[in-house]
Amino acid sequence: MIKSYKDLDVYNRSYELAMDIFYLTKKFPKEELYSLTSQIVRSSRSVSSNIVEGWAKREYENIFKRHLIDALGSSNETQNWLCFAKDCNYITEEEFVELDAKWNSVSKMITKLHQNWKTH
Protein backbone atom coordinates (compact mmCIF):
# COMPACT_ATOMS: atom_id res chain seq x y z
CA MET A 1 0.00 0.00 0.00
CA ILE A 2 1.33 3.40 -1.00
CA LYS A 3 0.60 5.91 1.76
CA SER A 4 3.23 8.52 0.98
CA TYR A 5 5.45 9.61 -1.87
CA LYS A 6 8.26 8.07 0.20
CA ASP A 7 6.69 4.67 -0.54
CA LEU A 8 7.27 5.18 -4.28
CA ASP A 9 10.41 3.41 -5.51
CA VAL A 10 10.78 5.99 -8.26
CA TYR A 11 10.89 8.80 -5.69
CA ASN A 12 13.52 7.00 -3.60
CA ARG A 13 15.70 6.15 -6.59
CA SER A 14 15.51 9.63 -8.07
CA TYR A 15 16.35 11.22 -4.70
CA GLU A 16 19.32 8.88 -4.25
CA LEU A 17 20.56 9.62 -7.76
CA ALA A 18 20.26 13.36 -7.18
CA MET A 19 22.46 12.94 -4.13
CA ASP A 20 24.94 10.94 -6.23
CA ILE A 21 25.01 13.80 -8.75
CA PHE A 22 25.55 16.32 -5.94
CA TYR A 23 28.60 14.45 -4.63
CA LEU A 24 29.92 13.75 -8.12
CA THR A 25 29.87 17.45 -9.03
CA LYS A 26 32.10 18.27 -6.07
CA LYS A 27 35.04 17.33 -8.31
CA PHE A 28 33.96 19.51 -11.25
CA PRO A 29 36.14 22.56 -11.95
CA LYS A 30 35.22 25.72 -10.05
CA GLU A 31 34.63 27.58 -13.32
CA GLU A 32 31.66 25.25 -13.92
CA LEU A 33 30.01 26.12 -10.60
CA TYR A 34 27.45 28.49 -12.10
CA SER A 35 27.08 26.56 -15.33
CA LEU A 36 27.22 22.79 -15.70
CA THR A 37 27.42 22.05 -11.98
CA SER A 38 24.41 24.18 -11.16
CA GLN A 39 22.38 22.88 -14.09
CA ILE A 40 22.94 19.19 -13.45
CA VAL A 41 22.32 19.46 -9.71
CA ARG A 42 19.10 21.42 -10.28
CA SER A 43 17.74 19.12 -12.99
CA SER A 44 18.52 15.99 -10.95
CA ARG A 45 16.80 17.41 -7.86
CA SER A 46 13.83 18.44 -9.95
CA VAL A 47 12.92 14.81 -10.65
CA SER A 48 12.08 13.83 -7.06
CA SER A 49 10.71 17.32 -6.36
CA ASN A 50 8.20 17.04 -9.18
CA ILE A 51 7.14 13.60 -7.95
CA VAL A 52 6.56 15.04 -4.47
CA GLU A 53 4.66 18.05 -5.76
CA GLY A 54 2.52 15.87 -8.00
CA TRP A 55 1.85 13.44 -5.17
CA ALA A 56 0.40 16.28 -3.10
CA LYS A 57 -2.08 16.87 -5.94
CA ARG A 58 -2.70 13.22 -6.83
CA GLU A 59 -6.47 13.51 -6.38
CA TYR A 60 -6.38 15.46 -9.62
CA GLU A 61 -5.12 12.80 -11.99
CA ASN A 62 -4.19 15.15 -14.83
CA ILE A 63 -2.20 17.42 -12.53
CA PHE A 64 -0.33 14.50 -10.99
CA LYS A 65 0.46 13.15 -14.44
CA ARG A 66 1.64 16.56 -15.61
CA HIS A 67 4.15 16.61 -12.75
CA LEU A 68 5.30 13.14 -13.74
CA ILE A 69 5.90 14.41 -17.27
CA ASP A 70 7.91 17.30 -15.80
CA ALA A 71 9.90 14.78 -13.74
CA LEU A 72 10.56 12.76 -16.89
CA GLY A 73 11.79 15.87 -18.66
CA SER A 74 14.16 16.67 -15.80
CA SER A 75 15.44 13.11 -15.79
CA ASN A 76 16.25 13.36 -19.49
CA GLU A 77 17.78 16.79 -19.00
CA THR A 78 20.05 15.34 -16.32
CA GLN A 79 21.18 12.68 -18.78
CA ASN A 80 22.04 15.39 -21.27
CA TRP A 81 24.14 17.24 -18.68
CA LEU A 82 25.87 13.94 -17.91
CA CYS A 83 26.85 13.75 -21.60
CA PHE A 84 28.44 17.19 -21.29
CA ALA A 85 30.24 16.16 -18.11
CA LYS A 86 31.64 13.07 -19.86
CA ASP A 87 32.65 14.95 -23.01
CA CYS A 88 34.36 17.65 -20.92
CA ASN A 89 36.23 14.87 -19.11
CA TYR A 90 34.74 15.75 -15.72
CA ILE A 91 33.49 12.19 -15.26
CA THR A 92 34.84 8.92 -16.57
CA GLU A 93 33.19 6.79 -19.22
CA GLU A 94 32.42 4.22 -16.51
CA GLU A 95 30.75 6.81 -14.28
CA PHE A 96 28.75 8.04 -17.25
CA VAL A 97 27.58 4.56 -18.29
CA GLU A 98 26.52 3.67 -14.74
CA LEU A 99 24.66 6.93 -14.10
CA ASP A 100 23.07 7.01 -17.54
CA ALA A 101 21.69 3.50 -17.01
CA LYS A 102 20.31 4.45 -13.60
CA TRP A 103 18.63 7.57 -15.00
CA ASN A 104 17.21 5.46 -17.85
CA SER A 105 15.70 3.17 -15.23
CA VAL A 106 14.16 6.13 -13.38
CA SER A 107 12.73 7.48 -16.64
CA LYS A 108 11.13 4.09 -17.35
CA MET A 109 9.66 3.99 -13.84
CA ILE A 110 8.19 7.47 -14.26
CA THR A 111 6.71 6.50 -17.63
CA LYS A 112 5.17 3.33 -16.19
CA LEU A 113 3.70 5.23 -13.22
CA HIS A 114 2.29 7.81 -15.61
CA GLN A 115 0.72 5.12 -17.80
CA ASN A 116 -0.77 3.13 -14.92
CA TRP A 117 -1.86 5.83 -12.45
CA LYS A 118 -5.58 6.03 -11.81
CA THR A 119 -6.83 8.35 -9.09
CA HIS A 120 -10.13 6.50 -8.59
Written description of the protein model:
With 120 residues, this protein is mostly helical. It has a single domain (22-116), classed as de novo design (two linked rop proteins). The chain has 4 helices and no strands. The longest helix has 27 residues, at 61-87. The chain is elongated and about 50 Å long. The model has no long low-confidence stretch (mean pLDDT 96).
Condensed summary:
76% of the residues lie in helices and 0% in strands.
Write the layout of secondary structure elements.
Elements: H1 9-24, H2 33-56, H3 61-87, H4 93-116
Question: What percent of residues are in strands?
Answer: under 5%
Provide the succession of SSEs: HHHH
Q: How much is the radius of gyration in Å? A: 15 Å
DSSP E strands, number: 0
Structural class: mainly alpha
Total helical segments: 4
Mind telling me which CATH architecture this is?
Up-down Bundle
Please state the overall shape, judged from the principal axes of the Cα atoms.
elongated
- Name of the top-level CATH class: Mainly Alpha
Mean pLDDT metric: 96
CATH superfamily heading = 23S rRNA-intervening sequence
Unreliable segments (pLDDT under 50, ≥5 consecutive)? none
The residue fraction in helices comes out at over 70%
CATH topology: de novo design (two linked rop proteins)
Number of domains: 1
